[in-house]
Amino acid sequence: MIKKIVLSAALLSSSLMAESFFKDSYSLIAVEGGMSTMDVERSEPGTSATLTKYDTAHAGLKIGAQSDDFRVFFSGRYYSADDFDYMTTYGVDIQYMLNFSSAVNLYMGVGTGLANMRFLPAGEANSRTISEQYYNGDLGFNIHLGESVDLELGGRIMSIDATNTIDSVSYNFDNVITGYASVIYKFKMD
Fold first, then answer.
1. Which of 64, 104, 112, 167 has the most CB within a 10 Å radius?
2. Can you give the pTM of this predicted structure?
3. Average pLDDT value for the chain
């Protein structure tokens, strides 16, 4: 299913397809940075579950297309957190823009993709690896800094719902809550 979504978004976000599907469309390139919080629950038989909160910083790149009311982005993000060797996400985001002002618009969207991570919990000898599909929703404001540059300020909730179990000890990843900002460069391709 995710392959079909990624393929569809690729076709829609290419400048050639965007021009045929969207009137007055733009191609987009964006750089994103933000802060996230993620809860990881550790459980094993005979003991109470413990919850560890991880605060992460992230950087990402987004490529896509925009019409008057919609945007489609391919996104890749790298997260940095204690105990994690790596944490990355790759996905597709579709957003609806409510154009209530010439200087600012409100956007809301949904997305899906793949989350990959490897971490070494404190006190354990084995690394844990997760590769799981995620779903997300986002909401924010898009501030027009000029005709070809926007500043995006938003929040995202990502649901991973992944569990890693080794020797009856399980780690469960559920939601990642993110605040982020993006600088978006808009351009038309001939």
1. 64
2. 0.82
3. 87
